[in-house]
Specification:
The complex is a heterodimer.
Chain A: H1 4-12, H2 19-42, H3 47-56, H4 62-74, H5 90-107, H6 109-138, E1 149-155, E2 171-172, H7 173-182, E3 186-192, E4 196-202, E5 205-214, H8 218-222, E6 228-229, E7 245-248, H9 250-256, E8 267-270, E9 273-280, E10 296-299, H10 303-306, E11 321-329, H11 335-352, H12 354-357, E12 361-366, H13 367-371, H14 376-414, H15 416-424, H16 429-464, H17 479-505, H18 509-514, H19 517-520, H20 524-560, E13 570-575, H21 584-598, E14 604-610, E15 620-625, E16 637-644, H22 648-652, E17 656-659, E18 673-677, H23 678-684, E19 694-696, E20 704-710, E21 725-729, E22 738-744, H24 752-762, E23 768-772, H25 773-780, H26 782-816, H27 818-826, H28 831-864, H29 876-902, H30 906-912
Parallel strand pairs in A: 5-10, 7-9, 16-21, 18-20
Antiparallel strand pairs in A: 1-11, 1-12, 2-11, 3-11, 4-5, 6-9, 7-10, 8-9, 13-22, 13-23, 14-22, 15-16, 15-19, 17-20, 18-21, 19-20
Chain B: H1 8-22, E1 28-29, H2 30-40, H3 49-62, E2 65-70, E3 78-83, H4 85-109
Antiparallel strand pairs in B: 1-3, 2-3
The chains are: A alpha+beta, B alpha+beta.
């Protein structure tokens, strides 16, 4: 038979058709001629005659040429011309590649959905965590030109900068005013306090709110404009107590007041003083502490009226450091110049007011450096957790990438023919790689869009877990986040696309074209790469699961820690009668009446008052021990001070180890007494009894005699390092902010309502906040619990992805080995043997992954061991349970394809093969 | 190009009708079409590849027929042409006008049609 294809191709070569069009035409015509030739031969003509007669049909190619031109137009959307050499317009090629990618995807929607879902989960998790980091750390202050903002805070001269923890020290308002008037470097300098709890008396019901005292130029210094009304006028912050005005947080306006359009001019009774709302701050702005903000800003001149106890003599007392400065430097002023100028003023103040200001200076720092140090107790774990989570979600994304890469590898086997044909027709490899990469990046882009949606809902869930939403920062999905999502999507596309693309384009043309597609299968090398990726996935999933299990166990243990007070039968009620306008005698009467009323409530075992809320105590410094010389300022004793009423130790479940508890004999007129904890007794009177020794509390004139030693507990944080604590009787140390402790006989939840009713009856104007002992413990472990929840979630996500990958690889292998399996079964292999064969293949990969993950988990566990409570980094139970979960899921992923393999019909498989 | 040579113009219009009629019942590939034309016309009408395929492509271009590569077991893939709904409409109207044309010719020339 003559080679009709060659003959036709030679004839139409002068038409210069495009590759695909030409090959179609050649195929169609040559078939026709072959059939014709065969027809003549069957009719009895000789080979030569038949050949000549058939060939004569090709004599006049003119009509063909005319219509072939139309074909070229028809075929113009065949995206990558098989024979294209690689030169050409870049954007045109890109556009063509994209169109081709879209067409290829339309052909396999299941593949696209799977890839997009897998990647979207990875990208979504990353975007969620990044948004949190972006909101909290990278760009926390929503004010114009936040980079030009500096913070002025107190400092000790020897260190030059801040306190040990890196937290800036507060300044007295009087000092701040001197810095403001005397400096030559600030264009504008404002002051602010931290948010303070106040009582809002609305319609006979008292509610809690947070208010922040700020100087009159606070908002103008930050460069903000009100969304409604106005900010403070200069004269509103000059005369103490004269202007009761307030600016409201946007979130509070929307949340608590339903966005009431008539909010401006509205009267609010706060701590028994009527304030007028004059303006609404811009949305997102919650003050200089970027995580937690106030509901209201109030002029500093109102300090003494709003918070009479806390802020007494705030305008004159240079020992009362409650403010921090925020300012903007004059143009062309460097930070060094500002620092020098401020240090001069500080030195002058130290000479002028030696009793308070000696050994104290001030420092100017960019706001970014201070922001996170200023609330180090909450910021450090957030910072740490964010970094940890970013690593975890990065791993999840890597797993998703390697999963998709595996799928593409499997697919590239089936596209090998296509690639070989293109290469054979003269396409260059770089062009093919680009085409394949365009496909993966396009897929990744789709996944990025889906990932952003996932992030949006993820953030919604995450931030809903926080209470009092208007006071907390809200996540911002801004341009930075979009750019981040786009960038990781594109990077992801390259990452999972490059290896399969390079592999696919490296096909051997002659081999592939010679062979039938089905006998090709995966090359040995490709299987190795896919398996390596899978082992890595399993290892990472195992690592995450072990880490999650370790933290889970650690939290379990943390719940078992004895905090030094009883929690099972405890309910606490925070009150602040002072904020309701109660003077000392009335407040004392209130305390007594409450005690008398509550003790009669059925189910109550005992009741007492204390100034501290469990796990919320702030240590103070300046305690003196008789006979112990203070060597320097830094040598001041730091201790928790708790003012307690009779019965406190019994109610709260704090044991007295030696001496006595407070009694009715400890009155204002009797000898001042105190009870210290074990830790303090051991530190300051080692080897001797603390009983009978004397101490002086900061701000007190008289010495107090120690009459008892109580067991050390947790005061500020759950499972904290032991710290000193001093208890003093309420009768000898009046406070107008006290917490009622109630010990119940049964479940404390049962008696909350009757107690609240009694409290309301005793003081209708007094605000009450309720918590049970259990809630206090859970609050103390809040961040740890959120962390474990996220870690478990991402660990399971990683496991799910790895299992899908495992399933995919095995299902593909079963498909490839169908013939072999059929042969085995035809030769007598039982179904069970075949199933075992496939499961073994999958589980050997899993075993390798678990082994690597185990080693990695030991190393990571050691790094994390400082964050674990009472669980060793190599805790066998955590590792075993993670292994059980992983192996179970992996077995399932292996069993499904193996089951399919067992169902192969030997005859059908062999015939197909 | 017909082996015998009736008028060229004459044939051009008729060729379209021939192809469309053959595709009326079922899709066919190019060789099948040419073979059927030759057989049914008793060898009077014949198409060479160089005129048949341009005709097919033209009809496809107009949207009257549609070509598809079809793979069958134990066979090479072939391009089968089928009638589109528009082609079916066209076939009906061409048949009608041919009938009128032939009738008119018969009345004028006295040639009896078969």
């Amino acid at each position: 038979m003559p080679d009709w294809k060659r003959i036709v191709r030679d004839r139409i070569a002068p038409f210069r058709l495009e590759g695909a069009a030409e090959s179609d035409l050649v195929e169609e015509l040559s078939q026709h001629l072959e059939d014709r030739y065969r027809y003549f031969r069957i009719g009895g003509e000789s080979e030569q005659e038949a050949f000549e007669k058939t060939l004569s049909e090709l004599d006049n190619t003119h009509p063909l040429r005319e219509n072939a031109r139309k074909m070229r137009e028809l075929s113009k959307y065949d995206a990558v011309p098989a024979g294209e050499s690689g030169s050409g317009n870049l954007t045109e090629n890109l556009w063509r590649d994209l169109r081709y990618a879209a067409r290829t995807m339309r052909k396999s929607p299941a593949f696209v959905v799977f890839v997009v879902l897998t990647l979207a989960l990875g990208i979504g998790a990353n975007t969620t965590v990044f948004t949190v980091i972006n909101t909290l750390i990278l760009n926390p202050l929503p004010v114009p030109d936040s980079g030009g903002l500096v913070v002025l805070s107190a400092a000790k001269p020897e260190t030059g900068v801040t306190a040990k923890s890196g937290a800036p020290l507060l300044l007295p308002l009087a000092d701040l005013k001197d810095y403001r008037t005397d400096n030559t470097v600030f264009r504008s300098l404002a002051g602010y306090t931290s948010p303070r709890p106040v009582t809002w008396q609305a319609d006979n019901a008292a509610q809690g709110m947070f208010a922040e005292l700020v100087t009159g130029n606070y908002f103008s210094t930050l460069g903000l404009d009100p969304v409604k009304g106005r900010f403070f006028l200069p004269e509103e912050d000059t005369t103490p107590g004269a202007h009761a005005v307030a600016v409201m947080n946007y979130g509070t306006w929307q949340g608590r007041f339903g966005g009431d359009p008539g909010i401006i001019g509205r009267m609010l009774r706060l701590n028994n003083i009527v304030f007028t709302v004059i303006g609404i701050a811009p949305p997102q702005f919650i003050g200089m502490n970027a995580i937690f903000g106030p509901d209201l800003w109030v002029p500093a001149a109102m300090a003494e009226q709003l918070l009479p106890n806390e802020m007494r003599n705030v305008f004159t007392d240079r020992g009362k450091a409650t403010f921090q400065g925020a300012g903007r430097l004059k143009p062309q002023t460097t930070r060094g110049q500002a620092q020098a100028n401020i240090a001069n003023i500080a030195a002058y103040l130290a000479r002028e007011y030696p009793t308070t200001n000696e050994g104290r200076t001030a420092t100017v720092q960019p706001v970014r450096e201070v922001l996170f140090a200023s609330n180090s107790s909450t910021a450090t774990p957030i910072l740490f957790a964010s970094a940890g989570l970013l690593i975890v979600v990065g791993i999840v994304l890597l797993i998703a990438c390697s999963n998709v890469a595996n799928l593409l590898l499997a697919r590239s086997a089936s596209r090998q023919q296509e690639m070989a044909v293109r290469l054979a027709l003269g396409a260059n490899r770089r062009r093919l790689v680009r085409q394949l990469l365009t496909e993966s990046v396009f897929l990744a882009f789709l996944s990025g869009v889906a990932g952003l949606l996932i992030a949006y809902f993820g953030l919604h869930l995450l931030f809903r877990a926080l209470p009092a939403s208007s006071n907390f920062v809200t996540p911002r999905l801004d341009a930075t986040v979009f750019i981040f999502a786009l960038a990781i999507s594109l990077a992801t596309g390259f990452l999972f696309g490059i290896v399969p693309a390079l592999k696919a384009s490296r096909v051997s043309v002659s081999e592939t074209l010679k062979d039938e597609a089905r006998t090709l299968g995966r090359s040995r090398k490709r299987v190795t790469l896919a398996n390596a990726l899978l082992v890595g996935q399993v290892a990472f999933s195992f690592l995450l699961l072990v880490t999650a299990a370790l933290f889970l166990r650690s939290i379990e243990r943390a719940y078992e820690i004895d905090p030094g007070f009883q929690t099972a039968h405890l309910a606490v009620f925070m009150t602040s009668p002072g904020q309701a306008g109660y003077e000392k005698p009335r407040a004392k009467a209130f305390y007594k009446e409450v005690r008398d009323r509550i003790v009669r409530v059925p189910g109550v075992e005992s009741v007492s008052w204390a100034s501290n809320l469990p796990l919320w105590a702030d240590p103070v410094s300046g305690l003196q021990v008789e006979g112990r010389a203070q060597r320097s300022q830094a040598d001041r004793i730091t201790t928790v001070i708790n003012t307690v009423d009779g019965n406190y130790f019994e109610t709260a479940g704090v044991a007295i180890d030696s001496g006595r508890a407070f009694t009715n004999l400890d009155q204002e007129s009797s000898i001042p007494v105190a009870i210290v904890n074990e830790k303090m007794a051991r530190d300051y009177w080692p080897g001797a009894s603390a009983l009978g020794k004397r101490i002086r509390l900061p701000g007190e004139k008289q010495m107090r005699q120690i009459v008892g030693v109580a067991r050390t507990g947790n005061y500020s944080n759950w499972a904290e390092l032991p710290q000193s604590c001093v208890y003093v009787p309420l009768e000898q140390n009046y406070s107008d902010v006290m917490t009622l402790y109630v010990r119940s006989k049964g479940d404390p939840k049962q008696i909350l309502t009757p107690i609240q009713r009694e409290l309301h009856a005793a003081g209708p104007q007094v605000r009450i906040d309720v918590r049970t002992g259990q809630q206090i413990v859970e609050g103390g472990l809040f961040f740890a619990r959120v962390g474990v929840a996220l870690l478990s979630l991402f660990g399971l996500l990683a496991l799910g992805l790895a299992s899908i990958g495992l399933y995919g690889i095995l299902a593909y292998a079963v498909h490839q080995r169908k013939r072999e399996i059929g042969l085995r079964m035809a030769l007598g292999a039982a179904r069970a043997n075949v199933v075992r064969l496939i499961v073994k293949q999958g589980m050997s990969l899993v075993a390798a992954g678990v082994l690597i993950g185990f080693v990695a988990a030991l190393i990571v566990g050691r790094l994390l061991s400082r964050m674990l409570f009472g669980v060793s980094a190599s805790d066998p139970l955590s590792i075993a349970s993670a292994a059980v979960v992983l192996v179970f899921v992996a077995l399932l992923a292996c069993y499904l394809p193996a089951y399919c393999a067992g169902r192969v019909e030997p005859l059908a498989a062999l015939r197909e093969g | 190009m017909p082996a015998t040579s009736p008028d060229q113009e004459w044939k051009k219009g008729s060729a379209e009708l021939l192809v469309l009629s053959l595709l009326e019942d079922q899709p066919r590939h190019g060789y099948d079409i040419s073979k059927l034309i030759e057989m049914r016309s008793g060898g009077v009408l014949r198409f060479h590849v160089t005129s048949l395929y341009p005709l097919l492509y033209r009809l496809e271009d107009r949207g009257w027929i549609q070509g598809r590569w079809v793979e069958k077991r134990e066979q090479r893939r072939r391009r089968y042409y089928s009638l589109t709904p528009e082609g079916r409409k066209m076939l009906r109207s061409q048949r009608k006008s041919w009938k009128e044309f032939i009738a008119a010719m018969g009345r004028v020339t006295g040639v009896e049609h078969a």
